[in-house]
Amino acid sequence: MVWKMSQIICATEKIKVYEGLQRLCEYAGKDIRWCDGLWLAMLNDEDLYEEFLYYLEHHSFADRMKAAGYSLTDIYVWQMQQYNLISDTGKNTESCNKEAMVLQAFQTMTRMKKDPAYYTGKLSEDAGMDRE
């Protein structure tokens, strides 16, 4: 009797990226369901995954992908402005969790790709970031 084993391919890069996402989510106070939702979005969007991989390696955005003319940096800056308004500060303070803002930028990008009109409206009216 001859046993044949099918090849098992393990994408170690994806395991490491997921572990990196989990660490960032933990640091940012995001629960596992939120983290897994973002992970699923990344797995279903190669451009978003590549942007996150770049972020993990360089701790900055590559800004190769855009939605309705906006990059992750644009979304991040908009979120920081919103945080400053809500916190009633002139600039982001030490209490601002920058990694939470980064993760939220990735999450917002996934939503923006699905509903660009809503988010372009928010970004342009709230921060004067009109791309048209």
- What would you report as the Rg, rounded to the nearest angstrom? 18 Å
**Rough outline:** globular
Q: Specify the number of helices.
A: 6
The tally of strands reads 0
Order of helices and strands: HHHHHH
- The computed structural class is mainly alpha
Largest sheet: none
Portion of residues in helices? Answer: 55-70%
- The CA-CA distance between the termini, in Å, is 68 Å
Overall average residue pLDDT: 84
Low-confidence stretches: none
Beta-strand percentage range: under 5%
Defining key terms:
6 helices, mainly alpha, 132 residues, single chain
Structure notes:
By secondary structure, the chain is mainly alpha-helical. The protein has six helices and no strands. The protein has helices at residues 12-28, 32-43, 46-58, 72-87, 98-114, 116-127. Helix 1 (12-28) crosses helix 5 (98-114), helix 4 packs across helix 5 (98-114) and helix 5 (98-114) crosses helix 6 (116-127). The longest helix has 17 residues, at 12-28. 21% of the residues are buried. The mean pLDDT is 84.
